[in-house]
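hey can u check if this looks right to u? its 166 residues, i copy pasted from the old doc so theres a chance i mangled smth
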Amino acid sequence: MIIEGRAVLIPEDNVDTDVLYPGALLNLDDPEKMKPYLFEGYDPSLRDEVAAGDAVIVVGENFGIGSSREHVPLAMLAWGVRCVLGKSFARIFYRNCVNLGLLAVACREAVADASRGSSVRVDTDSGRVEVDGRPFQAEPLHPFVREVMGAGGLVAWARAELEEAR
């Protein structure tokens, strides 16, 4: 699978999901209703950058620490975010991304090369990442993760598996 988009930067390390989405609104379960609150405690102006629907969020080290707020990747998906490209991810954030069907790829060198608005291209099969045409190599996604991503997330994958088993 090839994912392409425009870089939206969150360059700091250890960005906590608690600042990316407000705890007072964890009762919302509709991603469309979550959208207006994404990045609320960090930088609300980033919503303007992701609004075009072709964003690749480029993040620093250990992105997504803190609570296990699925609201962050859900709201990113609602905005049309194509991928989160990071130096590294907190385990729970990465797993939420996989479960929800949002591609998260770690490639330190590509992140270091990206700037606001850079063109980003990710090949999930080979692990090749391009930033403004410059190539970098990330670990290819595990075949199971690619399968889950292709299905649109873990729930969609499980439904398809159950349907196939019938």
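The helical segments are 17-20, 31-34, 46-50, 71-79, 91-100, 108-113, 143-151, 154-165.
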